[in-house]
Amino acid sequence: MHEAIFIAAKNRGNMSIETVLNKINDIEDWQEELYIELHQNPELSMQETETAATITKRLQQFGYEVEQIGGGVVGVLRNGEGPTVLYRADIDALPVKEATGLPYASTKTMIDRQGNEVPVMHACGHDLHIVAGLGAAALLADSCDEWSGTYIALFQPAEETAEGARSMVNDGLVDRIPKPDVALSQHVLTKPEAGKVGTTAGPVLSTAASMRITVYGKGSHGSMPHLGIDPIVLASSIVLRLQPIISREVNPFEMAVVTVGSIHSGTKANIIPAEAELQLNIRAYSEQVRDQIIAAIKRVVNAECEASNATAPAKIEVFDEYPLTNNDPEVNERVTAAMIKYLGADRVEKLDPVTASEDFSIVPTAFGVPYTYWGFGGFTPDQQVFPNHNPAFGPAMQPTLRTGTEAATVAVLSYLAK
Ligand SMILES: [Zn+2]
Ligand SMILES: [Zn+2]
User: Fold this and answer.
1) Sequence ranges of the domains in the chain
2) Helix axes 397-416 and 2-12, enclosed angle (nearest 10)
């Protein structure tokens, strides 16, 4: 099926992609305005109601059939015979206090799902993803003579908490929209530089999981350790004993990370507390290695609890699980070839695998279709670069918006162009 489409597209030649890209100047003004509006109004994961309303309104204006599904928005544009292509953008922001110094910096706060007021910032650039996705949707809608098939513009909530793609699938996504032949997505990154894209075949983003572990000792006066069981010493032993999982148990040819990102216990110097809580983050490039690490962590925790004579078995919870993002080689080859042809070879680089994680692949996996995911640059060479999630993460509005829009449009049209 894919081979056939590929050959057909090759033989036809794709002058029409140039025609579509030439219209990008016409949408730049509203794109920049909307970007600033969204940047100043970020919303936390699974609370993206205004963002979803804005996206819905725009897609309807462009002439899409629009449905809200599982907190996200899907626009469908049916344009005759041909393949069906799904392009996905994530839309949520983070509980981060913006420190970019930009004139359009967010000063917004929200009440999070735990009931706390927190600052909110688009610190991962999902506002760029929304506007690039809407830009591509507008260009496609305005160029129906140049392509044929069905285009699905999917806007997904809660990427940052690994909930959004599952939420859409659980809300019936697969039965509510046409089945795509291929799924595409992209992310703004600090590398390559602004104006360029980076693509790769195979594993591109790691699988991830987080763990919350509570261990139980026995409280006592700080001067009388023999009458208690110290959960801080127990938790400390666990932290050290986790390190050799990576260095001694995982195959040296496999990428693997275990980080203890949080450890909490006690209130005062002279009190031995009754319990301690650890939060861990795990990354790997295969699901097997991730499962191996989680099993090893459980074994170490249980053994250390026994060694310390803990008063109860540890409570171990796995959360924020992300699948591996593993680009289909054929899809990547086709999209990369189109980007080289229409953006220029000097704007397309090979993307090095990233240890970050994504829930995008849950969508194509639910349909059983191949996908590819690429990066586009957000920082010009004269800018100071801050990584995604940093309070100072401030991508250059241009050429970043334009590049994201071009990349999405070219990738989609590499399947749909006449
Ligand atoms: Zn992100
Ligand atoms: Zn992020």
Assistant:
1) 2-203+324-416, 207-322
2) 110
**How many Cβ atoms sit within 10 Å of the Cβ of residue 196?**
20
Å from CA of 308 to ligand 1 middle:
40
Single-letter amino acid, residue 395: P
**Cis check: omega of the bond before 192, within 30 degrees of 0:** yes
Per the prediction, the chain carries an average pLDDT of 95
State the average pLDDT over residues 267-296.
96
Ligand nearest to the CA of 320: 2
Residue 306 CA to ligand 1 centre (angstroms)? 40
- What is the 3-state composition of the chain as percent helix, strand, coil, each rounded to the nearest 5? 40, 30, 30
**Among candidates 135, 9, 73, which has minimal Cα distance to 408?**
135
Q: CA of 200: how far to CAs of 162, 259, 352, 377, 387, in Å?
A: 23, 27, 7, 15, 20
Q: How far is the CA of 82 from the centre of ligand 1 (A)?
A: 31
Contact, 407 vs 184, CB < 8 A?
Answer: no
Answer for the pair 272, 281: CB distance below 8 angstroms, yes or no: no
Nearest ligand (C-alpha, residue 325): 1
Packed helices 329-343 and 397-416: angle between N→C axes, nearest 10 degrees:
120
Ligand 2 geometric centre to CA of 124 (Å): 5
How far is ligand 2, taken at its centre, from the CA of residue 356, in Å?
Answer: 8
**Residue 394, pLDDT score:** 97
pLDDT band at residue 13 using 50, 70 and 90 as cut-offs: low
pLDDT band of residue 9 (cuts 50, 70, 90) is very low
Distance of alpha carbon 87 from alpha carbon 291, whole angstroms: 30
Q: Is domain 2-203+324-416 given the CATH code 3.40.630.10 in the classification? A: yes
In angstroms, what is the C-alpha Rg of the chain?
A: 24
Confidence at residue 353, expressed as pLDDT on a 0 to 100 scale:
87
Using the CB atoms, write b or e for 226-255: b if 16+ within 10 Å. eebbbbbebbbbbeebbeebbeeebeeeee
H or E element in which residue 65 lies: strand 65-69
Instruction: Say how many Å lie between the CA of residue 378 and the centre of ligand 2.
Output: 14
Q: Which CATH class is domain 207-322?
A: alpha beta
| DSSP-derived 3-state class of residue 105 | coil
* Separation of CA 358 and ligand 1 centre (Å): 8
